[in-house]
Amino acid sequence: MVDELVNEAKDRMAKSVESTRVEFQTVRTGRATPQLLERIVVEYYGTPTPLNQLAGVQAPDPRSLLIAPYDTSALKDIEKAILESDLGINPSNDGKVIRLSIPQLTEERRKEMVKVVRGLAEEGRIAIRNIRRDVMADLHALESDFGKDEIHRAEERVQKLTDEYVGQIDALLKQREADVMEV
Q1: Would you say the CATH fold of 34-101 matches that of 2-25+106-181?
Q2: Region 141-168: what's the mean pLDDT?
Q3: At a CB cut-off of 8 Å and minimum separation 6, what does 160 contact?
C-alpha cells in the first residue's frame, strides 16, 4: 500500500512535468511553431473548440503560420479567438486561410515572455508540491497500520521524488528562458 502511494506520486509528478513542458511550448519565442496556437479555443457554433480541431496549422517559414480551417465559415471565429488571445499577433484573413506573421520580439516583450514562462514553471512546481502534500497526508493516515519507521522512509522517498521533479521543471525553465531571450 505504501509503495503504491509512492508510485502513484511518481506517475502524477511525471505528468505534471510533461504538462508544464507542453505549456512552455505555447509561449512565443520569436519563431513560428504550430504549438503557439495549442491553447487557443474558438467559439464555434456556441461551443468552445480547440483551434487544432477546426483547422490545420502549418509553419511555411520561421516567421509565419498558416491556418487553413476545415470549414471556411469558421474564419471569423478563429480570427476573433486569435485577437483575444495573449499572443499579441494580428491575423490576416484572405477568405480561405489566415496568415499570422510572427514579428521579431522586442527586448521588453522577451522579458514579459520570460515572466510568463516563470509563472508556468511555478504552477508546475505548485502542482508537484500539492501531489507531495496529498501523498504525505495519505501516508500519515496509514501510520497506525505500517508503523512510523516505514512511513518515514516513504516520506523521504516522496521528498526525493519531489526534489527530482522540481529539478526537471527548473531545467525546462532554464532552457525555455534561453530560447525566449535568444535573438
Answers
A1: no
A2: 92
A3: none
Contacts of 154 (CB under 8 A, 6+ apart): 2, 3, 5, 6, 139
Determine the distance from the C-alpha atom of residue 34 to the mean position of all C-alpha atoms in its chain, rounded to a whole number: 14
Residue 34 pLDDT exceeds 90: no
Which cell is 46 given? 456556441
CATH code that applies to domain 2-25+106-181: 1.10.132.20
Sequence-ordered list of residues with C-beta below 8 angstroms from that of 80, at least 6 positions apart, any chain? 42, 43
Mean pLDDT (whole number) for 12-31: 87
pTM (two decimals): 0.73
Count, in order, helices (H) and strands (E) of the chain. 6, 6
| Beta-carbon contacts of residue 65 (< 8 Å; ≥ 6 apart) | 32, 34, 36, 37, 57, 58, 59, 99, 100, 102
Spatial distance between the Cα atoms of 88 and 135, rounded to a whole number of angstroms = 40
* Cα–Cα distance for residue pair 139/148, rounded to 1 Å: 10
CA–CA distance, 6 with 55 (Å, rounded to integer): 41
Contacts of 40 (CB under 8 A, 6+ apart): 50, 51, 81, 82, 85, 87
